[in-house]
Specification:
This protein is α/β, with parallel strands linked by helices. The chain has two domains: 311 residues, ABC transporter type 1, transmembrane domain (ABC transporter transmembrane region fold); 238 residues, Rossmann fold, CATH 3.40.50.300. It has 21 helices and ten strands. Helix 3 runs antiparallel to helix 5. The chain is elongated and about 125 Å long.
């Protein structure tokens, strides 16, 4: 079982065994930036620690008798120059972390998009579009923020913890006690904080995805919502999802409000000051060392305060990484079979005991046996729910058969290279999808190398050319999303032109003239008849004229083939066909 039906090219091969491995495999490709971040973080902390040490020396110089004021200028210069260098290192650290985050956002978004294009229709039918959009936009952005400011601040704060532990014992060995106690308790408190935070950040990301999925569904079906006056109910449902998202954020805020290291910081500074004063009274420390030591303890403030935000950002980023990786790693039964047959298709079709069922459903097709010769025109008729559309989706492997075999030119469709198979089969469905691009781009979608003359020839054959010229920009007219600015008949004619331009070996029309008036249908009927010459054509239709035009008619009933024959044969031998044909004639 493969991860995707199409193994599309990836720049890299990230480790997808866990979210952490996946993020690391992306990040380590930018190793030189990671080094820059680490050097900047250590240098920033070291130079920050130099300030209290130098200030302590300055106090001792002033308190000497007489005051050693000439030492103040070199100390001041050292402090100033060290902070200038610190600023440069700080810039390098922040820039490196930001660059890593931006590059990961770019690479992960591209990786996710490639994987989504490679997933089968089974995956896309089950995965809510709004949730997918949330993962592809907001969750990917969270990974960027995980690096900067998240990991950037976390790495910087670790160095601020280490340096007081190293420098303080140089004044007196016992001064290691307070920094050591603070670090141990800080790490334990942080572990507890992250343990509580992890399920909450996961819940936040999931709640956002669910809220976005509902919003996308309502907007996509806005016409149905308005037609049934369901605005109020949809608002209430969205408000409920928004409340769940809000409540999850409030729970996160509650955990952050109980962040113990803030209390530990105050206790540590107080304890450190008392300890230093005690040593001073014992004559074991001078004033400058006391001041330097207290200044070093103040460095703990940075990791304490930034960890409240930085680690919640890291937790959120890891939760988002898990959601994205879950989408990428979703498996499907379909495989593109890159080593499969890529030859020119003749168009012979044969079904041998074919059965099919959608996931978690009863079989909708059972024991189908049928042979279609090259160049034949076949009409498939049947009542709604008979399995007509499901059958044609098996031909181009939108889905795979569950039992039996479907052969094209004597070769199982699973033995064909999937890309080659689909390029030689054109399917025009009743629900036509057009992109928010120019009319010319929509017609040439399946043949990007087509010339303008070829586009116009296909458009004329599909009765598109005349109405296109009526638009101000002609073929460069940008149509609305999903083609909403066009009528149903116009959309279907553009879809026909798109199919004609690809010159497929097998042409399938799934009730594709249902939105076309009778006069236009007569014109398109002749175009379809011309396009069907020399290629296998399958019509799913209730149009009487198209049914009679077919060389052979297949009657589906309850997912099984009830009858096969010509129009005249079936009119005398099949009650099911007579009812369908008479119904088509009346319509």
């Amino acid at each position: 079982m493969s991860v995707a039906e199409f193994v599309l090219p990836q720049k890299n091969n990230p480790d997808r065994r866990s979210p952490l491995r996946w993020i690391l495999s992306h990040a380590t490709r930018h190793w030189w930036l990671i080094i820059a971040v680490l050097v900047g973080a250590f240098g920033n902390a070291a130079l920050a620690a130099a300030v209290p040490v130098l200030v302590g020396q300055a106090f001792n110089a002033i308190l000497e008798n007489p005051p050693h004021t000439e030492a103040l200028i070199p100390i001041a210069l050292l402090i100033g120059s060290s902070q200038l260098i610190r600023a440069v290192l700080q810039w390098g650290r922040v820039f490196g972390a930001e660059l890593i985050g931006q590059r990961l956002e770019r690479d992960i978004r591209q990786e996710l998009y490639i994987e989504l294009l490679g997933k089968s229709m089974t995956f896309h039918n089950l995965q809510p579009v709004g949730d997918t959009m949330a993962r592809g936009t907001n969750d990917v952005r969270e990974i960027n923020l995980m690096f900067n400011p998240g990991i950037n601040l976390a790495v910087g704060s670790i160095n601020f913890l280490i340096l007081p532990l190293i420098i303080a014992p140089t004044y007196h060995p016992s001064l290691i006690v307070v920094p050591a106690i603070f670090i141990v308790t800080y790490v334990l408190a942080l572990a507890q904080y992250l343990n509580e935070l992890q399920p909450i950040t996961q819940a936040i990301r999931n709640a956002f995805g669910n809220m976005n999925a509902r919003l996308s569904e309502a907007i996509d079906g806005i016409e149905v919502v308005k037609a049934h006056a369901r605005e109020g109910q949809e608002i209430e449902q969205f408000s409920q999802n928004a409340r769940i998202f809000r409540d999850a954020l409030v729970r996160q805020g509650d955990i952050e409000a109980r962040f113990i290291p803030l209390l530990l910081l105050g206790l540590s500074i107080a304890g450190g000051v008392l300890h230093a004063l005690y040593l001073f009274r014992q004559g074991l420390l001078d004033v400058g060392q006391v001041i330097a030591y207290v200044g070093l303890l103040q460095l703990f403030g940075f990791p304490t305060f930034v960890s409240l935000f930085a680690y919640s950002q890291i937790s959120s980023g890891m939760a988002s990484a898990g959601r994205i990786l879950d989408l990428i790693n979703r498996k499907t039964d379909l495989n593109m079979n890159p080593a499969g047959n890529t030859g020119k298709m003749r168009g012979e079709l044969e079904l041998q005991g074919v059965a099919f069922a959608y996931p978690a459903n009863e079989p909708c097709l059972r024991n189908l046996n049928l042979k279609i010769e090259m160049g034949q025109t076949i009409a498939i008729v049947g009542q709604t729910g008979a399995g007509k559309t499901s059958l044609i989706k098996l031909i181009n492997r939108t889905y795979d058969v569950k039992q039996g075999a479907l052969l094209i030119d004597g070769l199982d469709v699973r033995d064909w290279n999937l890309e080659s198979l689909r390029k030689q089969i054109s399917i025009i469905e009743q629900d036509v999808f057009l992109f928010s691009r120019s009319i010319a781009e929509n017609i040439a979608f399946g043949n990007r190398d087509a010339s303008q003359a070829e586009i116009e020839k296909a458009a004329k054959a599909a009765q598109v050319h005349d109405f296109v010229l009526g638009f101000g920009q002609g073929y460069e007219t940008i149509i609305g999303e999903r083609g909403v600015t066009l009528s149903g008949g116009q959309r279907q004619r553009i879809a026909l032109a798109r199919a004609f331009l690809t010159k497929p070996s097998i042409l399938i029309l799934d009730d594709s003239t249902s939105s076309i008036d009778s006069q236009t249908e007569d014109e398109i009927q002749r175009a379809i008849f011309h396009a069907a010459e020399g290629r296998t054509t399958i019509l799913i239709t209730h149009r009487r004229s198209q049914i009679r035009w077919a060389d052979k008619i297949v009657v589906l009933s309850g997912g099984e083939i009830a009858a096969v024959g010509t129009h005249d044969e079936l009119m005398t031998s099949s009650d099911a066909y007579r009812r369908i044909f008479i119904g088509a004639q009346e319509s």
